[in-house]
Amino acid sequence: MKYAIFRSLLFVPANNWRLIESAKRALDADAIILDMEDAVPIDDKETARWFVKDAVKELKDVGHTIVVRVNSIASGLAKDDLKFAVQEGVDAIMLPKTESKEDVVVLERMLEEEEKQKSLNPIAIIPLIESARGVLNAYEIASASKRVIAIAFGAADYLRDLGRSYFTLSPDEHELLFPRAQLAIAARSAGIYAIDTPYLGLLIDLKGVQKEAEIALKLGFKGKMCIHPSHVKIINEVFTPSEKEIELARKIVNAYEEAVKRGLGATSVEGRMIDKATYDQAKALLITIEALKEKEKRLGKK
Questions:
Q1: Which of 207, 239, 271 is a domain's end point?
Q2: How much of the chain, in percent, has pLDDT values that exceed 70?
Q3: pLDDT greater at residue 24 or residue 297
Q4: Looking at 74-83, 86-95, 127-136, 252-261, which range is the least confident one?
Q5: Is 192 in contact with 150 (CB distance < 8 Å)?
Q6: Using CA atoms, how far apart are residues 15 and 25, in angstroms rounded to an integer?
Q7: How far apart are CA 46 and CA 62, in angstroms?
Q8: Which end of the chain has fewer CB within 10 Å, C or N?
Q9: For residue 199, what is the domain's CATH number?
Q10: For residue 60, which of 80, 88, 85, 101 has the smallest C-alpha distance?
């Protein structure tokens, strides 16, 4: 399963029913992440599991794509989490603290067991990479299973693993340049999406959100996680192709298809040479735009 649209993914604590209810109105978010891990204290894990069980249908009924972040394999809680998280309507499981291919393989086995018991189709996997080891193993993680549709970056835990704090992150975020680039390249190599970390600055710093999203976009990320609904619109705007980009993509597609009809393997648009690779990139952009229009139509937007 691959998503044409995965720009914004909004975290919602799975133990907080009030926020789950609020998420029903966050229709601009491309996905809702029901979080059973960091946002949930250990004493509230069971509550989160039962809330996830009930929340999925309600969120699905309003048209949301649903991701559930379970606890890590190392925590020993993931297997019990999946008893509640694996159900009709869940699109993907996010696995935190992923450090190796083996973590993905273990999760896949757990998913297969639950899906078989419940007669469900395979659910996708989004490994969340949050450590130095995970960054170094990014490609093996990204290519560990056909279920993996994206890899995501968790900067807060990554910095902690290095003995640093996101409270002292430099304005230009140079500390995160290598891991971001590594994840983006690994994802591209595996033919999947790279999703950036939530913004670690002040929640009200919307300019900071935009700046960080633009950095991620330039490095090759396709979307970004967020922890506050006010960030969704900004993230969507950054990761949505502009009208100028869309128009150029249409010109490239039309010109190349006409060239092929004439038996040519390349042509030019606006003075620049275009070939099959350029055409494929432009075509993918237009497919994404069509998928976005379908989403808006599904949600009753104009």
A1: 239
A2: 97
A3: 24
A4: 252-261
A5: yes
A6: 18
A7: 25
A8: C
A9: 3.20.20.60
A10: 88
pTM for the complete prediction? 0.90
On average, the pLDDT of the chain sits at 93
CA torsion angle 289 291 296 299 (round to 10): -170
The rounded distance, in Å, linking the Cα atoms of 72 and 103 is 9
Is there a domain that residue 1 lies in? no
Burial (Cβ within 10 Å: 0-12, 13-18, ≥19) of residue 200:
middle
Cα 278 to Cα 147, 188, 245, 256, 272: the distances in Å are: 28, 16, 13, 9, 11
pLDDT at 3: 47
Q: Which residues contact 39 (CB under 8 A, 6 or more apart)?
A: 11, 13, 14, 15
Question: How confident is residue 171, by pLDDT bands cut at 50, 70 and 90?
Answer: confident
**In the 8-state DSSP scheme, what is residue 95?**
E
In 53-79, which positions are buried (b, 16+ CB within 10 angstroms) versus exposed (e)? Answer: eebbeebbeeebbbbbbbbbbeeebbb
Amino acid at 173: E
In this structure, what token pair is assigned to residue 283?
Answer: 């075509």
Q: Is 173 left (phi over 0), alpha (psi -120 to 50) or beta?
A: left
Amino acid letter, 41: P
Query: Within a domain: residue 28?
Result: yes
Residue 89 resides in a domain: yes
* pLDDT tens by residue, 5-34: 889 999 999 999 999 999 999 989 999 999
Chain centroid, CA 257 distance in Å: 32
Residue 153 pairs in a beta bridge with 129
**Which token pair is 33?**
């992440």
Q: What token pair was written down for 239?
A: 């990761």
Determine the Cα–Cα distance for residues 218 and 284; give it in Å rounded to an integer.
17
Tell me the two tokens of residue 275. Answer: 């070939």
Find all residues with CB under 8 Å of 171, minimum gap 6, and list them: none
SS3 131: coil
Asked if the structure places residue 2 within a domain, the reply is: no
